[in-house]
Amino acid sequence: MTCCCPSLVPLPACENRDWTRHAIALLQGDGRRSADTHLVNPAFKGLRGIQIYLKDESTHPTGSLKHRLARSLFLYGICNGRITEGTTLVEASSGSTAVSEAYFAHLLDLPFLAVMPRTTSRQKIEAIERFGGRCHFVDHAGEIYTVAQRLAEETGGHYLDQFTNAERATDWRGNNNIAESIFGQMQGEEHPVPDWVVMSAGTGGTSATIGRYIRYRNLATRLCVVDVEGSAFYDAWQSGDMETTAAGSRIEGIGRPRVEPSFIPGVIDHMIRVPDAASIAAMHVLSDRLFRRVGGSTGTNFFGLCWIAANMLREGRQGSLVSLICDSGDRYAATYYNPEWLAEHGIDIAPHRAMLERFLDTGEYVAIS
Q: 0.85 exceeded by the pTM?
């Protein structure tokens, strides 16, 4: 059998590739301008011999840790051929991820639709709409997944699906991810390899990135993930049952009613559950000490960091601890910083606040029962 050479034909113009190259150049430009953030080193006189570092993700252009994730999700979708010129983008989100995604959709001139609980803070909704995005509300947090998938199918668009793709879209080996940034900035500090990194989980993608990076670089650092009331992560990590479900969290951006695909329990060294009142109290305490407001998930992180520090003090150990400032507290003026909202939801932060203030000033930790 003979095989004939193909006849010559005009090559395709590849207009989509031209758009792809332009889009990636825009995303890479944003990354060069904004990928790194400050590593804040506040001093607390009660924490003798323990250095505290807070990676301040609130300084990104869209005001939160989710700016990194959104950029990664866009690059992931474009490089896999799922996002092209004119693609309608749909996301399920409790707010901050959708704000960042709306920013990138605006940058690339793409339609964007966020599916979110009706209880999402007004400030986040307004931010999405300022970037030209639209919001579709559901009554129950557990509905956002199926509704987002349905709307993507109906519009012929792309479901960004942060909860599945967060751990896939980020290069955990490096490439300027948050873990590489933290450990690079720690070089030259008194204790350059932190004893623990403490952080909360929303998609689970950031904890997966940090946990994997720690192992990849063969570091002695351990990862503590702090979870909140109404979240499935902690119970699933303890039991090993990834089908665990829960009611859902009151702390926006973290805690989930189900175990998300991006949550990787095997890279976590320890987990604790933090009461909502303690998260919000810690948010208030840290805000006062930094002279600016931080969000509720940062409060959860900070409470967990204080708990780790208390254990180190009890054991007579010195070292460094790292956590994250996830976003600004300005988005929560009507909720976590509003005494009427706290009273309406039966949240009394006073005992936890007093305990934390005493701990930071004296090193004495007395758990609230």
A: yes
